Amino acid sequence: MTIPLPGAQVRGSKTGKPIMALLDLLGRTWALGIIWNLRSGPATFRELQQRCEKISPTLLNTRLKELKTLQLIENQESGYQLSSQGFDLFEIISPLGTWSSQWAQALMENKKS
Amino acid sequence: MTIPLPGAQVRGSKTGKPIMALLDLLGRTWALGIIWNLRSGPATFRELQQRCEKISPTLLNTRLKELKTLQLIENQESGYQLSSQGFDLFEIISPLGTWSSQWAQALMENKKS
DNA sequence: AAACATGCTACATTATTTGTAGCAAACTTA
DNA sequence: TAAGTTTGCTACAAATAATGTAGCATGTTT
């Protein structure tokens, strides 16, 4: 799968509008999960593998390369970490944490009835 | 692929923490794209297919079922549309539109140097 | 120098996505 | 009212992506 560079053809868009490139990226297995799991600080490859519970090393490496190319993460001495852009992105999606709990609760209540 | 119900085992989590169920869902091909494309109002199946430019009907239908089960969209007379929960979700992620443009620009500038 | 840890790669198996064709049901039009 | 059209979707084979396990090279600890 080619890396969804804004400007290039990506899933969902011939023009490569930045939002489409981003949605393509985030829509790939584990991309969001990796970003989410890096929110709590840098992690080495194996650490990150554990945070992600059951990601395969093959895919982890593939995603890390993509995220690095797209400058959302960087690889420093302390391990992989969100770049400043990656962190901005995380801040946008971070309300999903709280939201998802409410959503889960609503789902349960609707199941009852 | 089983629908990532909060509480069940999902990709990335044995416990099915709601956020993990959500990230699993959103990390599926086209899930984010469909939500994004419904932001501008209801659409019939074929309309939605066009908004998504090149989604296959098979997958569109699969995702629609998932999103419906998880109460993020609903199917009314006017077609498929975001449910009130789906809309809340969209509101959280909607800043990605603007953010992605800045990101794309930053990427371009870094390419130069 | 032997044992261990780390960051990956190889690769076969399995799962997901695509793309095309087309069908049944509901609506139009003649 | 009978012949199109359109719509919502299913079938299915081919292509692509993800998983899981093994393991290797390099660096570090004892």
Q: What do these coordinates show?
A:
The structure is a homodimer of 113-residue chains. Chain A has 113 residues and is mainly alpha-helical. Chain A has one domain: Arc Repressor Mutant, subunit A. The first copy, chain A, is 56% helix and 7% strand. Chain A has six helices and two strands; from the N terminus they run ααααββαα. Chain A has helices at 18-26, 31-37, 45-51, 57-69, 84-93, 96-112; strands at residues 73-76, 79-82. Chain A has a two-stranded antiparallel sheet with strand order 1-2. The first copy, chain A, is globular and about 50 Å long. In chain A, 40% of the residues are buried. The model of chain A has no long low-confidence stretch (mean pLDDT 94). The interface between A and B is large, with 46 and 46 residues. Chain A binds a DNA duplex (30 and 30 nucleotides) through helix 4. Chains A, B: InterPro entries: HTH_HxlR (IPR002577), WH-like_DNA-bd_sf (IPR036388), WH_DNA-bd_sf (IPR036390). Chains A, B: This is Transcriptional regulator, HxlR family.
**Ends apart, CA distance between termini of chain A:** 43 Å
Share of residues in strands of chain A: 5-15%
- The structural domain count of chain A equals 1
Q: Which structural class do the helices and strands of chain A define?
A: mainly alpha
Question: Strand order within the widest sheet of chain A?
Answer: 1-2
Describe the sheet with the most strands of chain A.
Answer: 2 strands, antiparallel
CATH domain class of chain A: Mainly Alpha
The succession of helices and strands of chain A, N to C, reads HHHHEEHH
Give me the CATH fold name of chain A.
Arc Repressor Mutant, subunit A
Task: Give the helix tally of chain A.
Answer: 6
Largest interface: A-B, 46 and 46 residues
Radius of gyration of chain A: 16 Å
Average predicted local confidence, pLDDT of chain A: 94
Protein name (chains A, B): Transcriptional regulator, HxlR family
GO molecular function (chains A, B): DNA binding
Domain HTH hxlR-type (chains A, B): 17-108
Organism (chains A, B): Colwellia psychrerythraea (Vibrio psychroerythus)
